[in-house]
Design brief:
It is built from 15 helices and 15 strands. It is of the alpha/beta class.
Length: 350
């Protein structure tokens, strides 16, 4: 790369960071804390993926998505998932139109999925039939209705929420749909200082609303930059070995995974690791993804792609514990070769 090209890249990376900083600042007017969750949602948007937000009621999951839609000049739709929701309520349907001349014509009435940001609120309350209506849209960004395929506008991102506690009247998401989500983000309970800030923001004077700072063209430009970020071969090999180690019969699977794991992450998990690592590198001002970037995004990218066996569920094992064991068992070699850690090596959870 010439000096002129390197200078142009540095300018693009700096512009990327400024834009992310502006989005963070505006979202911060409505959302207190949860910086990791905010960055996770932005990562999904820039990677062309989708996010599943899980947390107990009242933590601001829906408010976060609304704030994001205000900060970005994009179309926004919300669907409240209920047991009686039908696929046509999401995708749209073909209807008959009576012409003034007396004839009739069929036309397609688009559903709320034809948007840029789709909030699927309490997605696990809908039946599997309705949940599956989103599969094609999430994977291929298109909708097929009555033998006709309709392409969705870019960017298109599904931000789904679910409550991990209430099980009555819910339908757990099938593995095929979970795999469509780039990230699964756990929304934590705020600490004392954050609770003070939340109360000051929501019980005082009318708070300042976020303003739009990014438009569709800027987001698509940032996406193109993400795809250009280089990944060294040893970093990609590290991501591959992490994926392999999540399988109980994988060559580097830790004992915890062999004992409690049932199914490991799919190749989509490897794609999620690399894309998210590229975005993290850009946010930090670097134009190259590293092994540390892969480690930092591993939990969000893999926690919903690892399935535990009956023993693991009975013992109360969490998939994050399996990911910790996987990351702790693989280290980067001095010459860029990824090696397996020796027993007893320290585990640094991101």
């Amino acid at each position: 790369m010439s000096e002129q090209d390197a200078g142009a890249v540095r300018e693009e990376v700096e512009l990327f960071r400024k834009r992310i900083g502006a989005v963070r600042n505006e979202i911060g007017k409505a959302i207190v804390g949860n910086q990791g969750v905010v960055d996770g949602v932005l990562t999904c948007l820039l990677a062309g993926g989708h996010a599943l937000l899980e947390g107990v009621p009242g933590l601001g999951k829906t408010m976060l998505v609304r704030a994001l839609s205000e900060v970005l000049s994009l179309q926004f739709s919300r669907v409240q998932f209920t047991p009686d929701l039908m696929p046509a309520d999401i995708l749209g349907t073909t209807v008959i139109d009576d012409k003034q001349s007396g004839g009739k014509a069929f036309y397609f009435r688009k559903g709320p999925v034809f948007t840029n940001i789709l909030l699927a609120d309490e997605i696990n309350r809908a039946t599997p039939k309705t949940q599956s209506a989103l599969l094609e849209a999430m994977a291929e960004h298109r909708v097929s209705v009555a033998n006709t395929t309709h392409t969705l506008d870019e960017p298109f991102v599904v931000l789904a929420t679910q409550n991990p506690l209430e099980m009555e009247g819910t339908y757990p998401l099938p593995e095929a749909q979970l795999d469509r989500f780039l990230f699964k983000l756990n929304v934590p309970f705020p600490n004392r200082d954050e609770l003070h800030a939340i109360l000051d923001l929501t019980t005082g004077a009318t708070p300042e609303r976020p303003r739009a700072v990014l438009d569709q063209a800027a987001i698509l430009e940032m996406r193109r930059l993400v795809r250009r970020v280089p990944v060294a071969r040893h970093v990609q090999d590290y991501a591959i070995r992490v994926i392999q180690a999540t399988h109980p019969d994988g060559p580097d699977a830790p004992e915890l995974c062999k004992r409690f794991g049932r199914v490991g992450a799919s190749p989509r998990g490897a794609q999620a690791l690399l894309l998210a690592a590229k975005i993290r590198a850009l946010i930090e001002g670097r134009f190259a993804a590293s092994v540390d970037d892969v480690r930092a995004v591993a939990h969000s990218a893999l926690r919903h792609r690892i399935l535990l066996n009956f023993e693991g569920e009975a013992e109360g094992i969490k998939t994050d514990q399996v990911i910790d064991a996987v990351i702790g068992g693989i280290a980067e070699g001095k010459a860029g070769v990824v090696e397996k850690k020796k027993p007893g090596a320290a585990v640094g959870a991101p």
